[in-house]
Amino acid sequence: MHPAVSVIFFTVASGAGFGMIFLIGLGFPVGGGAGRAFLVSLLGGGLAVAGLLASTFHLGHPERAWRALSQWRSSWLSREGIAAIVTLVLFGIYALVWMLTGNRSQLLGLLIALGAATTVFTTSMIYAQLKTVPQWKSPLTPVVYLSFALGSGWLLASAFGDYQSPELWGILLVALAWAAKWIWWAHAGRARLSDVGSTPETATGLGFIGKVRLLERPHTGENYLTREMVHRIGRKHARKLRLLALVLGGVLPIVILALIALTGAPAPLILVAALSMIIGLLAERWLFFAEAEHAVSLYYGHR
User: How far is residue 36's CA from residue 217's CA, in Å, rounded to a whole number?
Assistant: First the structure.
């Protein structure tokens, strides 16, 4: 699949933003009065909104994005949009009350946390429910999306919050997130289009005559399908990007958090760990799309 920059930014930024919103809703301690409350709320909500806005650039007609909300009965994309809007509206009310009164409603916070988790889950299900992409169609896909959202959200919230020993929880969450991703990579490496019943015979509809092979490409040039659905990446490049994602997104943040825990280094270094993880997740998410094989590629000779 073609790794669109807008969708990569959307899934990473909104994941981190809704991860922060989830933690804030559950009562993540933040001191410093209204100013700090505004800063933390702006960061979490801003990342979520920026990611959602970026996703519209991948649409052919961004001005018609609102129409997707009407398909909530059958579309995970529609459910994601509705969940995101409801969560952000409730979070805006929560943040306003928090800044004006200093009080944080537990009931509203729980609803916000539930909404944030639901939004990230619906985002992951846009990909996990696709039978045409065997690498994505796995219960592990929502687990990876949710764990990365929680890990990156925890690091960002810890950089501005007052949680005691946040680095210890941060190490655990980041390590578990990448463990889930490692298992996902192992699954994706074994996944084949034939596992979901997709073959050149089903792609062309010519299976009734026997084995099918491509004699000539159906088009002399590129088209929308070959640009968006048939993307190839070399194994060497994929391995290098995996290593880059793992080091920047997992190893470096854990090292920074361990350094803070062992030496008493300044806690604001957690922000460096958070930024490093987000950069690593951008590489991880690029691979998520680039390594995916869509069934339509079979029509163009891929076996």
Answer: 59
Q: Are 73 and 46 in contact (CB under 8 A)?
A: no
Q: Could you write out the three-class secondary structure of 22-41? A: HHHHCCCCCCCHHHHHHHHH
pLDDT in tens, 103-135: 999 999 999 999 999 999 999 999 998 887 888
- Widest Cα–Cα separation across the chain: 74
- Count how many domains the chain has: 1
First to last CA, the chain: 15
CA dihedral 205, 132, 53, 46 (to 10 degrees): 180
Return the sign of the alpha-carbon dihedral for residues 136, 138, 129, 285. Answer: negative
Closest to 211 in 3D by CA, of 226, 225, 200 = 200
CATH code where residue 58 lies = 1.20.1630.10
